[in-house]
Amino acid sequence: MVRGAAVVYPKDAAQIIGLADIFPGAHVVEAGAGSGALSCWLLRAVGDHGSLTSFERRPDFAEIAAANVERYFGASHPAWRLVVGELGQDGITGADRVVLDMLAPWDHVGTTAAMLAPGGVVCCYVATVTQLARTVSALRDQGNFAEPAAWETLQRGAEAELLRGAGMLPVGGVMGDAGIPGEGVADEAEASGETVG
Ligand SMILES: C[S@@+](CC[C@H](N)C(=O)[O-])C[C@H]1O[C@@H](n2cnc3c(N)ncnc32)[C@H](O)[C@@H]1O
């Protein structure tokens, strides 16, 4: 895959898809599209009858994302809309899920609450514990989300080894790079676009 921005790897994409409950037919908003790696995972999860709107502020990265997604699916995907510009600029409402992989998701919690349907979920993927703490605080302070869950993802492989007849040994390294999602659920009563500025 040609890369502009750093991509989301499978260990983290799997967590995002599973724990943010990205389901077939879901209406999902994503920012930023970056290189389009997470867009491919999200499109696989929502399928042809869902929708994914991906915002990317950098036209050069948007071009790379568009080429990567088209190469991955072998054609343009019917559920995908790529918007070159700032997250939320076209007034989306009623989204089931919002997935943010960007430097400062805490600046966008109000926009996110306005985009989500009641009961919708936001999943923020950040690279450092400092970003994670700031994201969790912003979601709490925004007031329209249930208590956020936060975690780090580490993955250790296992190698089949002959160990006195049978057994598995863990391999030496743990893959733990930039994989710290945080997640909040929009409050049923307050998450509509009308109540959040
Ligand atoms: C780490 S990259 C995303 C990588 C992507 N998830 C992937 O797997 O290929 C972050 C991207 O967010 C974009 N971005 C940051 N703030 C944004 C905003 N407010 N609106 C739209 N895009 C934004 C950046 O230009 C950058 O391309």
What this model shows, in words?
This protein has 197 residues and is α/β, with parallel strands linked by helices. Helix content is 28%, strand content 28%. The chain contains 5 helices and 9 strands, in the order αβαβαββαβαββββ. The strands form 2 sheets. The chain has a 7-stranded mixed β-sheet with strand order 3-2-1-4-5-9-6, sandwiched between helices. A two-stranded antiparallel ribbon has the order 7-8. The longest helix is centred in the middle third of the chain and has 15 residues, at 59-73. The protein is globular. The N and C termini lie far apart (38 Å). The model is unreliable at 188-197 (pLDDT under 50). It binds S-adenosylmethionine. Residues 5-8, 31-32, 34-38, 55-58, 61, 86-87, 101-103 line the site of S-adenosylmethionine (SAM).
